[in-house]
Amino acid sequence: MGKKSAKGKGKKPAKTRAKEKASRKSPAESKANPLAEIEKSFQELERRLEEAFSDGWRFPSRWELPEWSRFSKLKNMTPRVDIIDRDEDIMVRADVPGVKRENLEVTLTDNTITIKGKTSEEKKEEKGDYFRSETMKGTFARTMYLPSDVDGGRAESSFRDGVLEITVPKIEKARRIKVDVP
């Protein structure tokens, strides 16, 4: 620290005063970028919180996100679906691996299809005094618009190797008609 004269008693050193003056913005500069001022205020708040809670406190913007690989099975809960628009009918093909036939439900309206399902998986392991049990259960529902109105009463379906196929005839007015251009 520098020497204090009788005149400058209680004043900050000239170097500190110069830094503070340089960091201050004029009212015109502040109005030009108000978000910069807000960001600066948050940075100052964060710095002060770091000083006050130096024993592991972290500002929320720096908290670690969960390890998403743990949730990878959840993304498989929504089936992948292909909708194929053919001349006379519409075929819907859904990949639903691990879902049993009795745990599937399909509903049709004039122009939508909903596929619902449940999955359940249980793993048990016993070795002497060691016992481990894991259970995973989940449900899914997916509703999609069909490219035209269908006759749901005449729908046909098949389910094999985790693939659900539903074929639904189009209603008469929605069938594709070829028009010859002269």
Sequence stretches where pLDDT stays below 50 over 5 or more residues = none
| Average pLDDT figure | 76
Assigned CATH architecture of the largest domain:
Sandwich
- Helical coverage, percent range: 10-25%
How do the strands of the widest beta sheet line up side by side?
1-2-7-6
- Round the Cα radius of gyration to an integer and report it: 33 Å
Number of domain units: 2
- The total strand number stands at 7
What form results from the Cα inertia axes?
A: flat
- Helices and strands, in order, run as HHHHEEEEEEE
* Secondary-structure class: alpha+beta
Number of helices: 4
The span between the termini is 96 Å
CATH fold category name of the largest domain: Immunoglobulin-like
Give a quick account of the main beta sheet: strands, pairing sense, barrel closure: 4 strands, antiparallel
CATH class of the largest domain, named Mainly Beta
Proportion of residues in β-strands: 25-35%
Keywords, separated by commas or semicolons:
single chain, 182 residues, alpha+beta, Immunoglobulin-like, 2 domains, 4-stranded antiparallel β-sheet, 3-stranded antiparallel β-sheet, 21% helix
List strands and helices in order, with pairings.
Layout: H1 14-23, H2 27-32, H3 34-52, H4 72-75, E1 80-85, E2 89-95, E3 104-108, E4 112-127, E5 130-145, E6 156-160, E7 163-169
Antiparallel strand pairs: 1-2, 2-7, 3-4, 4-5, 6-7
